[in-house]
Amino acid sequence: MAASQACSSIFFFNAERLGEAGMPALDACALCTKPLSRDSDIFMYRGDTPFCSEECRDEQMQVDAVHAGKAARRLRQYASGTEARRGHQESRKVSVVS
């Protein structure tokens, strides 16, 4: 049993290190890549994404809103296309009574 516990703890500590993909470092602005100093304000967005100014953060928020709008439109188009196909398939089902 001790071997299985040791094995599971290996996976627990086998996570990505800070600064690698998946976890942005607090060294530079995520938009303009301006270096961030420890004594300056850092503007955060989505919990862990750093920006050097409110302007950079707001610009990223606007870009994200545009992408979210496009994704929502694609989802609506897909959903309406699936409904149209379903309706078309249902219209083909005809019962013939003699």
TrEMBL record:
<keyword id="KW-0479">Metal-binding</keyword>
<feature type="domain" description="FLZ-type">
    <location>
        <begin position="24"/>
        <end position="68"/>
    </location>
</feature>
<feature type="zinc finger region" description="FLZ-type">
    <location>
        <begin position="24"/>
        <end position="68"/>
    </location>
</feature>
<dbReference type="Pfam" id="PF04570">
    <property type="entry name" value="zf-FLZ"/>
</dbReference>
<feature type="compositionally biased region" description="Basic and acidic residues">
    <location>
        <begin position="83"/>
        <end position="98"/>
    </location>
</feature>
<dbReference type="InterPro" id="IPR007650">
    <property type="entry name" value="Zf-FLZ_dom"/>
</dbReference>
<dbReference type="GO" id="GO:0006355">
    <property type="term" value="P:regulation of DNA-templated transcription"/>
</dbReference>
<dbReference type="GO" id="GO:0008270">
    <property type="term" value="F:zinc ion binding"/>
</dbReference>
<comment type="similarity">
    <text>Belongs to the FLZ family.</text>
</comment>
<feature type="region of interest" description="Disordered">
    <location>
        <begin position="78"/>
        <end position="98"/>
    </location>
</feature>
<dbReference type="InterPro" id="IPR013088">
    <property type="entry name" value="Znf_NHR/GATA"/>
</dbReference>
<protein>
    <recommendedName>
        <fullName>FLZ-type domain-containing protein</fullName>
    </recommendedName>
</protein>
<dbReference type="InterPro" id="IPR044533">
    <property type="entry name" value="FLZ1/2/3"/>
</dbReference>
